[in-house]
Amino acid sequence: MTYRNWLTTGVVCAAIAFVIATGAFFHSQRPASADSRAMILAVDPQPLVAVTKGGERSFSVEIADTSAEREAGLMFRQEMADDHGMLFVFEEARDVSFWMKNTPMPLDLIFAGQDGRIRAIKQGEPQSEAMISPGEPVRFVLELKAGTAARSGIEDGDLLRHPAIGTAHN
């Protein structure tokens, strides 16, 4: 009888240990907000075009159009091509603020209104918690590698064209 109780106790303890170990493994595999892995979104098949005084400049973009995607943005991204960026799409024009915490790359933040017209271009410093805002409501924010806006001749008042912007005139 005593042997049977020890056997039952051993099996129960082993089962509990297995459940705890399995839970710990799966919990460690789940990405968390403090996780240092970059979010990579699919590249949109349509390029974003910046219409400048010097001509048109095309960029491949990832579209961040959900709260979770906008929150993660380019955090933890170590590198990005010169002709690549992320377009943040908000449901409506509103006051927005960005920061560069957990973002190791310096960025240009290009703020555009409902019509796709650029309202402000700001620079983001890596790992900074300083708030970056255009000072007026916007509907879109395009993040590019730092210096890309200047090299491409992108200025306030220029136009951003993309299907996500073209359909945003609700």
Automatic annotation (TrEMBL):
The chain crosses the membrane at residues 6-27. Keywords: Membrane, Transmembrane, Transmembrane helix. It comes from the Bacteria. This is DUF192 domain-containing protein. It comes from Mesorhizobium ventifaucium.
